[in-house]
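ARCHIVE CARD
CATEGORY: sequence design from structure
SOURCE FIELD: tokenized fold
FIELD CONTENT:
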């Protein structure tokens, strides 16, 4: 706040009081006529703010601005945004806006009722939901990247790949055991894992990464590759592109939406092209 005021930028500050409060704050800001909503936090906070903005008519949505202060920071990383307060202030002063796609999804909430929620970066069904739940319970003393890697290793050791049916644009692309099905609007998740190296949030398409029936040896051999994006050459990794995705699992499989674990399969996703402006 001090840096923004020193730059001559007027602002109002609101502190979130609990889960999903950022959604209502962002919606209220748009209804009050604000042109920019800056979030200070992680990818979960960015997701909440984006969902609030998406409740507004397209012509009345403020632009989304980022100041990463969380475990992953994968959404701003996918956009190529530099971290730090000075960089965030510079983006607001420049007011350079780019339009990104948004993925809208429906899934089963913990109480088994259907729930609708958008995501702006990456979602996945399978091991990812187990990992983020473990990360979000931890204190992360060594930072987000180490926390995600440790959670992946410890979770996969006891995880059993689940039979899944994955449909992309009405075509069944996978039917059988899978470690995870990733629906990517951006390229990074898990604190710097380059899971979908070709994904772009403004290309009008989703990248679907299916990690098939891998074993522990596969996982260990691929750890260096997932941070470079070269895991896509592994024979048990497949990539598809489309605008509509349906994931059904033999048993309810936990979801990861932008670094949070909000529910379970079945999971339906549809792309909303050019839905949101962000400051870049």
């Amino acid at each position: 706040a001090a840096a923004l005021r020193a730059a001559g930028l007027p602002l109002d500050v609101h502190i979130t009081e609990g889960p999903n409060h950022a959604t209502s704050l962002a919606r209220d800001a748009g209804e009050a006529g604000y042109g920019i909503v800056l979030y200070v936090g992680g990818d979960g906070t960015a997701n909440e703010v984006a969902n609030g903005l998406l409740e507004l008519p397209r012509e009345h949505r403020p632009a989304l601005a980022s100041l990463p202060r969380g475990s992953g920071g994968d959404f701003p990383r996918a956009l190529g945004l530099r971290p730090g307060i000075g960089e965030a202030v510079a983006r607001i002063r420049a007011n350079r806006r780019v339009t990104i796609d948004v993925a809208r999804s429906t899934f089963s909430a913990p109480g088994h009722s259907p729930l609708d929620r958008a995501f702006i970066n990456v979602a996945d069904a399978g091991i990812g939901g187990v990992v983020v739940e473990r990360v979000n319970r931890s204190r992360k003393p060594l930072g987000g990247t180490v926390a995600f890697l440790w959670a992946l290793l410890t979770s996969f050791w006891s995880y059993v790949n689940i039979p899944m049916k994955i449909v992309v644009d009405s075509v069944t692309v996978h039917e059988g055991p899978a470690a995870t099905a990733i629906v990517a609007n951006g390229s990074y998740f898990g604190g710097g894992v380059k899971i979908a190296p070709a994904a772009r949030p403004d290309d009008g398409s989703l990248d679907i990464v299916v990690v098939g029936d891998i074993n522990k040896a596969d996982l260990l051999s691929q750890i260096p590759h997932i941070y470079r994006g070269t895991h896509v050459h592994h024979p048990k990794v497949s990539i598809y592109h489309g605008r509509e995705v349906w994931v059904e699992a033999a048993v309810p499989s936990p979801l990861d939406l932008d670094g949070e674990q909000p529910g379970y399969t079945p999971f339906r996703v549809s792309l909303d092209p050019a839905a949101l402006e962000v400051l870049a």
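CARD ANNOTATION: The first helix runs from residue 2 to 6. DSSP finds eight helices and 13 strands in the chain.
SHELF: design records, drawer C
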